[in-house]
Design brief:
CATH superfamily of the largest domain in chain B: P-loop containing nucleotide triphosphate hydrolases
CATH class of the largest domain in chain B: Alpha Beta
Number of helices of chain A: 10
Number of strands of chain A: 4
Order of helices and strands of chain B: EEEHEEHEHHHEHEHEE
Radius of gyration of chain A: 31 Å
Largest interface: A-B, 23 and 32 residues
Distance between the termini of chain B: 21 Å
Helix content of chain B: 25-40%
CATH topology of the largest domain in chain B: Rossmann fold
Strand order of the largest sheet of chain B: 6-7-8-3-9-10
Largest sheet of chain A: 4 strands, antiparallel
Number of domains of chain B: 2
Strand order of the largest sheet of chain A: 2-3-1-4
Number of helices of chain B: 7
Number of strands of chain B: 10
CATH architecture of the largest domain in chain B: 3-Layer(aba) Sandwich
Number of domains of chain A: 2
Oligomer: heterodimer
């Protein structure tokens, strides 16, 4: 164990500049991923607010008895996509219009008859607030004989879908690209450490060290660099977040990573470091260690 | 302890490094492997510690079928061997005792036993007083003694020495040779590749002479005696 700890920290002592450089590069890669994550997190937060407003409204034919509508509303409430169903009578619709549409208050006040239809307002459950599910619910509502028309703001629901998909795909691409960059960098630094320690590895092999014994310190070194890089990336993200928040006070309600998110970033850093060193060690061990060639015949 | 049967080694570039080499080394024997540079001595030693594999033929070392060892079985073979090289192969940033302890540490030896075992072998090679010296502070002969101590610390049944006196002056060479003889006197098989005929002439040990990858003379499995 003592030897393992010593071997892991040896490259940090022997190649301090290279180690600092590799940790910084990993940190910047993870920082970029982290920044994008932060944007995605806040975008998702904002979208969730918008999503909650996705509503399907079924306008009811004039003269439909309220009991019929109430029974139908109970039926609609059992749809798997539906969170709440509200029946808005003609009178309630007029009262709301007078209250909310202040510009037309005079026009509504002078009305002899109520032109507004009764409606059923349906809010969808989380996860169903997209165009396809809204359309599905709308389709089912249209099958009720007393339903005159169904609206759900198709355009903006579709736009919402689009933004959501774009953010997801962009996040994935940027995440993968920077993860690969970080892995390549960790791999290169591990390779340099291995070349620098080629003699030591060779001697280890000669005195009977197993491959896993030789790999161990390099894997831990990679994991440690990933961890330190992750920590630095979180600090950088926080600094960036604080600066942004100060320079754009209008954007209130911005959120930073939760502790769980930070743990995930650290775990991701460690995983990147481990994977990169595993690949790098596997490829270069045979170059520097003098692994015996295969029997030719 | 060592048995080679019809060993042939061809390198990927087509060079024939060993041509049908067969011999047997019994327990406690001291064997000189002689011949000019390029005769195949080092290639043969590399076969014994599984650094190279034969193209055909069988290599048995201390009960291991080296020619068919899997990668993960090689460390077990090497822990039963001690290997010494012309260029010592010491770690420059570690002291003599740390270099020796390294061989125990990498094989997972218990930490409590390491200092005593290191001291024992350093005393055996006559370097007890230089345990804390770094390789650069030691003479060539002393560095080779550290390398021998490292080879001995795992109590090997077989010691393989590839030109161990090649970088040493005559006096240091004699000292190292005497040390190897003492080790052999304790029952350890010693296979020493050398082209220093003056050393070979000093004892009547078995001599296997090689040229162009073939054994051209073997003084025989029963030749020589530790007392010679």
């Amino acid at each position: 164990m003592r030897l393992l700890v010593r071997e892991v920290f040896l490259p940090f002592r022997r190649l301090p500049l290279l180690s600092v450089l590799s940790i910084t590069t990993i940190a910047f890669s993870l920082f970029t991923v982290g920044l994008f994550g932060l944007v995605a997190l806040n975008l998702r937060q904002a979208l969730r607010g918008l999503e909650a407003r996705v509503e399907v409204v079924a306008f009811v034919l004039r003269g439909t008895p309220p009991e019929t509508i109430t029974v139908a509303a109970q039926d609609v409430a059992t749809f798997p996509e539906v969170q709440t169903v509200d029946y808005v009578s003609e009178d309630q619709a007029l009262a709301r219009a007078r209250r909310e549409l202040v510009e037309f208050r005079d026009a509504y006040r002078d009305l002899q008859t109520n032109p507004l239809p009764a409606s059923i307002e349906i809010r969808l459950k989380e996860g169903y607030r997209d165009a396809s599910h809204a359309e599905l619910v709308a389709e089912r509502l249209r099958s009720f004989p007393f339903v005159d028309d169904v609206r759900f703001g198709r355009d903006w629901v579709q736009r919402l879908d689009h933004i959501r998909n774009l953010a997801g795909v962009l996040g994935l691409i940027i995440g993968v690209v920077f993860a690969v960059v970080a892995m390549v960098i960790i791999g290169v630094t591990i390779r340099m450490t291995m070349l620098q320690r080629a003699r030591e590895i060779h001697i280890m092999r000669l005195v009977g060290a197993t491959n896993w014994f030789i790999r161990g310190p390099f894997l831990l070194e990679g994991a440690l660099k990933g961890l330190l890089g992750g920590l630095l990336a979180i600090l950088l993200c926080y600094a960036g977040f604080a600066v942004f928040q100060r320079s754009a006070p209008a954007l209130s309600g911005l959120v930073f990573f939760t502790p769980l998110h930070m743990l995930l970033i650290l775990a991701f850093g460690i995983l990147l470091g481990l994977l990169a060193s595993l690949i790098s060690v596997g490829r270069h061990l045979r170059l520097v260690g003098g692994r015996p060639e295969r029997r030719a015949a | 302890m060592i048995r080679l049967q019809h060993v042939i080694k061809t390198f990927p570039n087509g060079a024939l490094a060993l041509k049908d080499v067969s011999f047997h080394v019994p327990k406690a024997q001291f064997v000189f492997l002689t011949g000019h540079s390029g005769a195949g001595k080092s290639t043969l030693l590399k076969m014994l510690y599984a650094e190279l594999r034969p193209t055909s033929g069988e290599v048995r070392v201390g009960g291991h079928l080296v020619h068919s060892l899997k990668g993960d079985e090689i460390p077990r073979l090497r822990r039963r061997l001690g290997i010494v090289f012309q260029d010592f192969r010491l770690l420059e940033d570690r002291t003599a005792s740390e270099n020796v302890a390294f061989a125990l540490e990498v094989t997972g030896a218990s930490g409590d036993t390491i200092p005593a075992r290191v001291t024992r072998v350093l005393t055996q090679v006559g370097l007890a007083g230089k345990a804390r010296a770094y390789p650069r502070e030691l003479s060539g002969g002393e560095q080779q003694r550290v390398a021998i101590a490292r080879a001995l610390v795992n109590d090997p049944a077989i010691l393989l020495a590839d030109e161990p006196t090649g970088n040493l002056d005559e006096r240091a060479s004699l000292g190292v040779f005497q040390l190897l003889r003492d080790i052999n006197a304790g029952g350890t098989v010693v296979v020493m590749a050398t082209h220093d005929l003056s050393l070979v002439r000093q004892a009547t040990y078995r001599t296997i002479d090689m040229r162009d990858g073939a054994v051209i003379h073997d003084s025989g499995p029963d030749a020589g005696s530790p007392l010679a």
